[in-house]
Specification:
The protein is mainly α. The protein contains 14 helices and no strands. The protein has helices at 2-9, 12-35, 45-69, 71-77, 90-114, 121-138, 144-171, 174-179, 185-212, 214-219, 225-229, 231-257, 262-284, 288-320.
Length: 321
């Protein structure tokens, strides 16, 4: 029971998803785009494993400290699922944060030094302090907390490119000299595109969760978007964000994806359908359970975006063969 409580504290399903996203970004987006130009990955699998583990540990530490500061609110918003004080002492959550974040940072700092990108360790320091500051100050503020979590989510695939692409540029300076630009800009843009998509979907999910948690947040003086602007206006913001996501995905498909496989088109169509369903869900939602349906559909959209990475790999390989 206690082991399950610890796994729940650090949100183990999300940690698994983080690892999946990073491996998908590496092997389904960057690697095939390098291969069609005659290049291979520079970061070794062991080094990449260190990157994934350090990211997962820092995220786990962030979840632990978030629950530490949110224990009172969670007893109101999620009385049946809260584990702190009931199964795990709060001081243990603080220790868990310090240990996991500390190990994660030391691993990331060593990795950054080992691959010749020692300045990258500053990004991990930024992530740790952002998650701490989010839990202590920003989470209950208007929009800023939502933006921090969305940025941290985008950081998950982005950090993979931030390591591999500079290493490629340093190893192959002739590509810039001969062409006048880096041939590795292509995979970099795709990684940024996926990071941007995850950023927007996460932002929508976090705002929706603020509506779900509005009762407990009000009791403790929080100033989230639904409390400050009202639920009706917040629903309008969500519909506008999903409309933006749909428009951007449609543009990406028209510009870059319509030459790829029919299966890729089918997954894109499902993602678009899920976005349009969100309009109806959010518009008619009034209860906590109805807004939770929107959150679950948002999670499905994220999984479909990750699946599209694998389909992109297949499309690239079949198209260029």
């Amino acid at each position: 029971m206690v082991v399950l409580a610890y796994l729940k504290l650090i949100r183990w399903p999300i940690l698994v998803l983080i690892a999946v996203i990073q491996y998908a970004t590496r092997h389904f987006v960057i690697e095939p785009m390098l291969a069609i130009n005659g290049y291979g990955l520079i970061m070794t699998e062991r080094q990449f494993l260190w990157l994934v583990i350090s990211t997962v540990l820092i995220a786990a530490g962030g979840y632990a400290i978030n629950d530490y500061f949110d224990a009172k609110i969670d007893r109101v918003n999620k009385p049946k699922t809260v584990v702190l004080d009931r199964l795990i002492p709060r001081r243990v959550a603080m220790a868990t944060h310090m240990i996991l974040s500390g190990i994660g940072f030391m691993m990331s700092a060593y990795l950054s030094y080992k691959v010749g990108l020692w300045k990258m360790s500053a990004l991990f320091i930024f992530a740790i302090f952002s998650l701490w500051f989010y839990s202590t100050n920003l989470k209950n503020q208007f929009l800023s907390g939502n933006l921090v979590i969305a940025v941290m989510s985008a950081f998950v695939p982005l950090i993979v490119g931030l390591f591999e692409i500079p290493m490629q540029n340093a190893a192959h300076p002739e590509s810039v000299e001969q062409l006048g630009f880096s041939i590795f800009n292509g995979p970099a843009y795709w990684v940024m595109g996926y990071a941007g998509c995850i950023f927007l979907l996460t932002l929508c999910r976090e705002i929706t969760k603020d509506i779900i948690d509005i009762r407990g947040d009000k009791m403790f003086g929080c100033r989230t978007i639904p409390i400050v602007a009202g639920v009706r206006n917040t629903k309008s913001v969500l519909i506008g964000l999903y409309l933006l996501i749909g428009a951007l995905l449609l543009w990406v498909y028209q510009e870059f994806l319509n030459v790829h496989s029919d299966l890729h088109t089918s997954v894109f169509a499902v993602v678009m359908i899920s976005i349009f369903i969100q309009f109806a869900l959010i518009f008619r939602s009034k209860t906590k359970a109805q807004f939770q349906q929107s959150v679950r559909l948002n999670n499905l959209s994220v999984l479909l975006v990750i699946m599209s990475m694998y389909l992109l790999k297949l499309s690239i390989e079949s198209y260029f063969i």
